Amino acid sequence: AFADRMEIVILRPAMVYGPTTKGNLPRMIRAVARGWFPPVPDCGRRSMVHVEDVVNAAWLAATRTEAAGKTYVVTDGIEYTTRRIHEWICEALGRPAPAWTMPLPLLKGLAGVGDAIGRLRGRRFLFDSGVLEKLIGDEWYDSAEIREELGFIPARNLHDSMQEIVDYLRREDLV
Question: Does domain 2-171 fall into CATH 3.40.50.300?
Answer without folding.
Answer: no
